[in-house]
Amino acid sequence: MGRRYHCDYCGKSFPDNVNNRKKHLQGVHHIRLRKQHYESFRDALSALQAESQKKPCRRFQQTGNCDYGAACKFSHISPEELQRLTAQAEADKQRRRVATKTNASLEVWLKEHRQKSGLGEPFGYKGMLTAGSSAASGPPSMQPPTYCDVLECIPNRWG
């Protein structure tokens, strides 16, 4: 039995060869379902920009139904939904601003927290080790490697 291609957008499977796949991917039904899938992930700002540029669909306003559906070049969004999208887009902008400010002040907060708790600088022990004792008096594992040590080093091979 040959290989079969399964399209996640359409839920169809068919024998996989170049011609069948090309026909399917260029088909109207597949393109419509793929567009509908990606539009479900649009953020409020891009949806607002796209819908505010369109004129309202007369057929949708009169009957509540449009034969063109998602392919209609006019807007099917009511003024209430447009206001909701505007509010959601503003909330997203505000959330991004707050997130940017918190990331910028994280270092300041960490310094204040260290001062309040009396912890001091992280990795501050490195300066204490080099300043408080000479390298010759400590054990060999605490002595910094020399240039010769690095040249003589044979890396382990893990396998």
UniProtKB/TrEMBL annotation:
User: Where does the signal peptide begin and end?
Assistant: none
Coiled-coil zones: none
Q: Which domain of life is it from?
A: Eukaryota
Record bears the keyword Nuclease: no
The protein's location, in the record's own words, is: Nucleus
Keywords attached to this Swiss-Prot or TrEMBL record, sorted alphabetically, are: Metal-binding, mRNA processing, mRNA splicing, Nucleus, Spliceosome, Zinc, Zinc-finger
GO biological process annotation, one example: RNA splicing
**Residue ranges annotated for the C3H1-type domain, each copy included:** 51-79
Q: Which Pfam families does this UniProt record tie to the protein?
A: zf-CCCH
Q: Which GO terms describe its molecular function?
A: zinc ion binding
User: Which parts of the sequence are C3H1-type zinc fingers?
Assistant: 51-79
Q: Which GO terms describe its cellular component?
A: U12-type spliceosomal complex
Q: Would the keyword Metal-binding be found if you checked this record's keyword annotation?
A: yes
- InterPro entries under this entry? Znf_C2H2_sf, Znf_CCCH, Znf_CCCH_sf
What this protein is called in its record is: Zinc finger matrin-type protein 5
Starting at the broadest rank, the lineage of the source organism is:
Eukaryota, Metazoa, Ecdysozoa, Arthropoda, Chelicerata
